[in-house]
Amino acid sequence: MRVLAIETSCDETAIALLSVTGGGAEGRAASRPPRIEVRESLVTSQIPIHREFGGVVPNLAKREHLRNLPLLYARLAQRLRAKGSRLAFDMITVTVGPGLEPALWTGINFAEALAARTGTPLVGANHLEGHLYSVLLPSPGAARATRAAAGGAKARKTAARRGGTPPQIAFPAIALIVSGGHTTLLRMDSLVDWKLLGETRDDAAGEAFDKAARLIGLPYPGGPEIERLARTGDPHMAEFPRPMIHEKNYDFSFSGLKTAVLYYVRDNPSAVATDAGRAGLAASFQAAAIDVLVTKTVRAARECGARAVVLCGGVASNKALRAALARGVRKAMGRECAFLVPSSSYNLDNAAMIGLAGYMAHLRGAHYPLRADGSLEV
Ligand code: KG4
Ligand code: ZN
Q: What is the band of 163 on the pLDDT scale with cuts at 50, 70, 90?
């Protein structure tokens, strides 16, 4: 099935075309991922526009999505033409939430008009499910690698490593979704069957990175800036709290950590005046945030006997978090438990993940109303 996907939940306008086949929603089949080829995945980021405001401005995001959507759609058609192909699809899927409602509506309205014009079925998709399934997306170039691999066993192995074969998630699995709006821990019993274990009670992990960055004087979005500075900083410069780390639940809280950064900067103004001070603050903040995320996720994996741990969402781009969680899982669970992260192209918001989420929702018969729902849950 050819799936056209549209994503406009925050500050990225994205369109993708996927070929997806197989997978299943019943019994054992639900453990088998579908075969996926990402034909095109186009993303336009609005970060430079929102940067001067220190965060995303919903009405500016809406204006930019309205401008970008027809341009991206035309570019998609053009890219396919250049490959001797044409833009055709059997299903359209669009993010209906969670996210900024004025931004979500632009995608929904565009998708509805396109569905009416082309007579194509339209399916709503959940952005968080998109992040969850993004781990199954083959890395760009995988299709080429798979075709090239038709020749021999060695080449086939190489292709699989590059992502030509979607990873099999062994169940039960624990998934940590960490993005700008969410910190969500799930137990997955199949690809279409999961239970919420815990979530943040206040700020999301990405939001905490963004707010701490602002306090340190770094531009939006703060996550990548903190990660970059933290590489050279002393993580023990400030001993920040690890909120809720020992509580016997799977919830998170990051607002106390952000407040601790605020007080530190207020009481030690010289710290943000030097490169070493800013780097130390970034490293100390990042160490505290990672400590909490890793400790709680590893505990969940241990308690449910997980055979896989999945890390996804924008904050999953953070290499220090990836490395610490991989180490934590290996130490607690041994090699029997796989650690999976999306290909680096699909950590941040994109439409390829929405194409897959829409396809999976369609398979399992979930129907999301075609209405923006800012606080839609998994
Ligand atoms: O998933 P995403 O692209 O959008 C939402 O669904 O929210 O995530 C964006 C968030 C932002 O808060 C951003 O600062 C954070 O992901 N982020 C990072 C990194 N790259 C992006 N956080 C920590 N380290 C990074 N390298
Ligand atoms: Zn996202």
A: very low
The answer on pLDDT for 84 being more than 50 is: yes
The count of structural domains within the chain is 2
CA–CA dist 287, 208 (Å, integer): 13
Q: What is the pLDDT of residues 313-355, one digit of tens each?
A: 999 999 999 999 999 999 999 999 999 999 999 999 999 999 9
* pLDDT computed for residue 29 by the predictor: 52
Which structural domain, as residue segments, surrounds residue 179? Answer: 173-340
Mutate to test the pocket of ligand 1, among 50, 51, 179 (most ligand atoms within 8 A of CB): 179
Q: Which residue's CA is the closest to the ligand 1 atom numbered 22?
A: 223
Q: For residues 7 and 105, state if they share a domain.
A: yes
Domain membership flag for residue 369: no
Which ligand 1 atom is nearest residue 131's CA? 1
Shared domain for 42 and 145, answered yes or no, is yes
Same-domain check for residues 210 and 297? yes
Q: At which residue do the structure tokens 């075969």 appear? A: 35
269: left (phi over 0), alpha (psi -120 to 50) or beta: alpha
Q: Which residues lie with the beta carbon below 6 Å from any ligand 1 atom?
A: 10, 179-181, 206-207, 209-210, 221-224, 227, 313-315, 317-318, 348-349
